[in-house]
Amino acid sequence: MTDQLARLQAALRGRYTIERELGRGGMATVYLARDEKHRRSVALKVLRPELAAALGSGHFLREIGIAARLAHPHILALHDSGDAGGFLYYVMPYVEGESLGARLKREGRLPVATALDIAREVADALSDAHEHGIVHRDVKPENILLTRGHALVADFGIARAISAAAGDRLTGSGIVVGTLGYMSPEQAADQPCDARSDIYSLGCVLYEMLNGTLPVGTSPDSWPLGRVPRAVRRVLERALAPAPTARFPTAAAFAAALLAARRSTQSLRFRIPRRRLRAVFGVGGALVVGAALWVTVGPGKPTSRAWHQELAAATSSGVARQAMIEGQGRFWIWDRDGAAAAYRRAIAADSDLALAYHRLSVVQTWQWDYPAARRTVEAALARREHFAPRWRALLEAERHYIMRSADSAIAGFQAIVVDFPRSPDAWYGLGEALFHFGGLAGVSPLEARPAFARVSALDPTFVPLYAHLIELAVFAHDVAGARGYLAQMPRDDPERPAMAALIALSAGDPRLRAETVASLATADRLTLKLLVAHFGHGGADLPLTDTIARFLSGPDRTPDDRRTGGQYRFVALAGQGRWPEAVAVWDSLAGGVRFDRWMVLASLAGFPAPPRVTPMLSWARGEVRSGRSPDFRRPVFEESEQAFQATVHEAVLHGDSSAVRDLLGRLERATATADPSDPLPPALQAALEARLALLARDTTRAMRALQRSVARSAEPFAMYYPLAAMAPERWLLAQFARARRDRATATRCLDSFTHTWSLGDALYTQRVACLRDRLLSPDPC
């Protein structure tokens, strides 16, 4: 510790214990501290020494006291303030989450609906402060905290306190009250400021959320806001008017305008405005397919007119177009390496062909190479100034998808299809995001069906979507629709046999069902695994899942297939509550291994599995102690990586503080080599932090940490590697939410066990059903 920090700590002894520095700003340094009296974590801000010397304590503390009177849901409260040995400080709650500045640094810009919601909450906070005569004077992303899906404005009245307390004493100190770039013209000119100055600053923040940069110049004609709806542009233009009299007269008026703009663009999350629904899906939601329109762009390569128009809009290079056509053709026949090579040739021919970067990244996600997909998209976004707004938006939505950020990916693609309803790439991205991430985003995968249907209407050659369309039609009990999609699926598609069997098993014809079941005895491994995934999803039909898995574990199968079939049967039987049978099957087909992810998850889910799991966890802890895990450079399905996941989940449920802190330290060291696209390192870290909060009896902090731990999906790995699906944390969060009577959060967590593509979730089937029945009851499950 520096001498200065040591003196500060000594001056605060008995009141606050400083744990670590959180950040520095132009006026203060902020520390994470322990409030000894109330036994809670707080954020303690200490003014820079030269600023404190210029101010003096008396006047500053009087002014800070005025700001401390503010009480509003979107204002971060002031707990305390004081003078400790010449250090002027003030204390606020420590809020877990991140600042808007940190999120913008990570994501570049936000979906329109998200940006409007944040701005409206800040405007509400400003309105309350203005009514109390307090102008913030330093509205900027770093002073807006994001927690539990809402905004909190920090440092309210601090700039006012400094200005009022200092008078002319700041002259020559180098301290500027406010932040350049967000200052209103009158504040920058050191003229008197009123509430309309804060409105201008918030306008700058909104502009940055929408565009990724601050506005340059005062003319709206120079602002690159092509993706922003007209109603939102009008709000921005008024908030950023150079003259205060031309702006909104009050923050309340600004908030009302933001709400009206929000309703005019996206009235509901994940919902397309009704006028667009009529145009896209027809009156009443029926899909309008119309006549197929084709263009032949190469020998034997028919392409839909919509796709051809998309390509023509993307590049004028004939060489690049030909490479894109080849890439599409190779992708359609499952030659992913060939498709990737073709898209790279397209980029070489036209380095500003954003669509080629996008499609290359899609191929890479199909290859499960998310780090490569991230690098591709980020290489493209480094050239964002060369792209039209629609292509930038497509790449940014794809980056959210690669990062497995559910809400942002869904909202990003939705914003594009609203503005460009004939873009098959955007519709496909929306469908994929809803299908794979809907479970954690609070929606059913069925929400993806209209998006995939729209892709099919725009481009019937889009082969990879038909398996999803068939699965979703079967889920919706639309067997006729599923048969129609099967007819469009190529005969040599490797997933076609599974889709045909899926339809036959779901048709409601007992004879056809029996014949199909019998035919599965000779089915290939892929067909059986896809059928297990479908009927095991959300516990849809666990008896049938068990029957299908039997064929994989037959005596004529390979040892690996038999073990896998035994594991699937174990999950299906345990999910039905048939534990003794499940264990008998596991012992006969999958037992004797040093580590089994399914048996470990069963133990975590509350089944009486310790006799078999105890040695597995002992081995897993040995892997961790030896330093062999975690290593996030290795695939998630490697045994040692699953071992680390198991030790974390066990510690979250039962660990003491020493074990948890040890795992956190190992996790922190390993995270330095992890790719940012990997959702597991931050998820596991948040889960362990939740355990520490529980040990400290801080359930509020624990719930926030658990929410972070399940915010990003581990798809596509979670289907067959269930320890990556964060099921123990989702279950814990559901229990805490129920105890707090937060029915919405509890229901969303419970729904995730039905909607998330993780076969292991079937092990929670009976516990989830019990908790649903007792959401409003204190009785345990």
Description:
The longest helix has 20 residues, at 112-131. The protein has 781 residues and is an alpha+beta fold. A five-stranded antiparallel β-sheet has the order 1-2-3-5-4. The chain has 37 helices and ten strands. The two termini are 49 Å apart. Helix 21 packs parallel to helix 23 (496-506), helix 23 packs across helix 25 and helix 29 packs parallel to helix 31 (639-654). Helices cover 57% and strands 7% of the residues. Mean pLDDT is 85; it is low at 168-174 and 266-302.
Short structural description:
The protein has 781 residues and is an alpha+beta fold.
Distinctive features:
781 residues, alpha+beta, 5-stranded antiparallel beta sheet, 3-stranded antiparallel beta sheet, 37 helices
SSE blueprint:
Elements: H1 3-12, E1 16-24, E2 28-35, E3 40-47, H2 49-55, H3 57-67, E4 80-84, E5 87-93, E6 98-99, H4 100-107, H5 112-131, E7 144-147, E8 150-153, H6 158-166, H7 185-188, H8 195-211, H9 230-239, H10 251-265, H11 274-281, E9 294-296, E10 302-304, H12 305-314, H13 318-332, H14 336-349, H15 354-366, H16 370-381, H17 389-402, H18 406-419, H19 424-441, H20 449-458, H21 466-475, H22 479-487, H23 496-506, H24 510-519, H25 525-536, H26 542-552, H27 559-575, H28 579-589, H29 597-604, H30 610-625, H31 639-654, H32 657-671, H33 680-695, H34 699-709, H35 727-739, H36 743-755, H37 765-773
Antiparallel strand pairs: 1-2, 2-3, 3-5, 4-5, 6-7, 7-8, 9-10
Helix pairs in contact: 3-6, 5-8, 5-10, 9-10, 13-14, 14-15, 15-16, 15-17, 16-17, 17-18, 17-19, 18-19, 19-20, 19-36, 20-21, 21-22, 21-23, 22-23, 23-24, 23-25, 25-26, 26-27, 27-28, 29-31, 30-31, 31-33, 32-33, 33-34, 34-35, 35-36
